[in-house]
């Protein structure tokens, strides 16, 4: 029987690469995104293996309708997400921060809640896209990192909730990957994105899509709880120390 994957955020980046990979592997993919032109282009490229739905993760009624239309699925990939510009909390735009929380947390929970009964019936899997920001703090990352820490912990606690059902849950926590995500975070500033990734050989969308596919196709008795991929050229920055008077 053909397996069905529900993948959010397929108009760019990890989600788009994952949609391509799963369709080409014979899966039926239901893919969502906000940009209709990109959904149409990807559907034309991939043909009948992809069914698209225009969806805003901040609209709970639309999320529940999309889940009802999808029916039972074998795999949910919670990929759609936003990040605000790198600004300290008190200097950031509160509306932008609210959009990030509504997308990365509330929308993810709403969609997962709606699809989970069918995933349990299928003994399927949930793969959540978190981030190294869930674990490693940095200036300007308070809200984004907080949402990704939530996604990580939600994934682990879902393992407890779903014990005995056969459903697998994974949190993927990538480091630096060059996608459109950073351009959007910087309000369309391509130069800032290019500068961030210059000469460091970051991961690609295809790298993460391959990891999603690998996890989804593991033998059903195996669960990857969390996985934290980074490019070799990314490491850890250590602690910052403030010295009064300096």
UniProtKB/TrEMBL annotation:
<comment type="similarity">
    <text>Belongs to the short-chain dehydrogenases/reductases (SDR) family.</text>
</comment>
<dbReference type="InterPro" id="IPR036291">
    <property type="entry name" value="NAD(P)-bd_dom_sf"/>
</dbReference>
<keyword id="KW-0560">Oxidoreductase</keyword>
<dbReference type="InterPro" id="IPR020904">
    <property type="entry name" value="Sc_DH/Rdtase_CS"/>
</dbReference>
<protein>
    <submittedName>
        <fullName>SDR family NAD(P)-dependent oxidoreductase</fullName>
    </submittedName>
</protein>
<dbReference type="Pfam" id="PF00106">
    <property type="entry name" value="adh_short"/>
</dbReference>
<dbReference type="GO" id="GO:0016616">
    <property type="term" value="F:oxidoreductase activity, acting on the CH-OH group of donors, NAD or NADP as acceptor"/>
</dbReference>
<dbReference type="InterPro" id="IPR002347">
    <property type="entry name" value="SDR_fam"/>
</dbReference>
